[in-house]
């Protein structure tokens, strides 16, 4: 390892990282991968883990299946006082050497490393009393090949967190790959990031179904280069049908979720574009987001987390799929409304409406497209 290693601080944790990862545009994979731009995702993950373990009765054990130099696991071990054990796993021994150096400088006693292929590591922890209450999977690209072994290593009523960075596939550039990895295909829309998240959750649902497991999404987030989903794993099969389709009409911009495909637009009769099969259940659990809001104040995290969490709380119980101010403005050929005004107008007409954490110019509502355009035009 000739590369210069420097010390940085993220949250309140000291991390050793290759100097190149802080200076180069694309962080190098050698001697170990570290992306400083993913710090917001790690901040949210510290908040989510802390919220999940609040009042949690079972062992507070965290596994990172693809840890790189261990940034996430080190922060969890150091910043969440209740944690009992963290094991970070990677195939890269250099990354794990660096992780151990960081553990030492933070005086961590609850931190272990494992050098193994992810599924071998997780499978060696699939027995009932050897599982973790939180399992994190943060690969290069798609998490789909790790979902099965990750679920098996998660305690019942534990939490599984997955990252996906294969954005081109999830955004509709390569539909064959999307079908292969996620079982469903996206449609290019203004709300493509929500479709991407629902495809990931759809894939989890198919895999979990085989194992007689179900799950409940607790929180999802998206930034420039990644998607993340946090799910509570339940040891009962799913009772309700939560797999379906997003029906989208490019002509009149109508959109909604359905269990079955609908080929003609219910509003204008135009041919629809259909995303799926994918997850059509909730993306957020309101009580969990409220816990995130509470624990956040005791942690050192980016201010941006506040707005993300506040918006997630607002939108938690609103319908699937959002609209953007820009697309409605271009339909009615006028300047976009301010977000607050748009929401107030919808609420004044008796509809539910909220901002969305997934898009700064987006809003959710139970009002349908023809009514939205009328309300915005007046
Ligand atoms: C995106 S990085 C992880 C970044 C890390 N979670 C963080 O927040 O800094 C992905 C890591 O997966 C490791 N990796 C890739 N394939 C693997 C496999 N099959 N088993 C174990 N580790 C693997 C790579 O060495 C790399 O360190
Ligand atoms: Zn239509």
From TrEMBL:
<keyword id="KW-0949">S-adenosyl-L-methionine</keyword>
<keyword id="KW-0819">tRNA processing</keyword>
<dbReference type="GO" id="GO:0160104">
    <property type="term" value="F:tRNA (guanine(26)-N2)-dimethyltransferase activity"/>
</dbReference>
<dbReference type="GO" id="GO:0000049">
    <property type="term" value="F:tRNA binding"/>
</dbReference>
<dbReference type="InterPro" id="IPR029063">
    <property type="entry name" value="SAM-dependent_MTases_sf"/>
</dbReference>
<comment type="similarity">
    <text>Belongs to the class I-like SAM-binding methyltransferase superfamily. Trm1 family.</text>
</comment>
<dbReference type="GO" id="GO:0002940">
    <property type="term" value="P:tRNA N2-guanine methylation"/>
</dbReference>
<dbReference type="Pfam" id="PF02005">
    <property type="entry name" value="TRM"/>
</dbReference>
<keyword id="KW-0694">RNA-binding</keyword>
<protein>
    <recommendedName>
        <fullName>tRNA (guanine(26)-N(2))-dimethyltransferase</fullName>
        <ecNumber>2.1.1.216</ecNumber>
    </recommendedName>
</protein>
<keyword id="KW-0489">Methyltransferase</keyword>
<keyword id="KW-0820">tRNA-binding</keyword>
<dbReference type="InterPro" id="IPR042296">
    <property type="entry name" value="tRNA_met_Trm1_C"/>
</dbReference>
<keyword id="KW-0808">Transferase</keyword>
<dbReference type="InterPro" id="IPR002905">
    <property type="entry name" value="Trm1"/>
</dbReference>
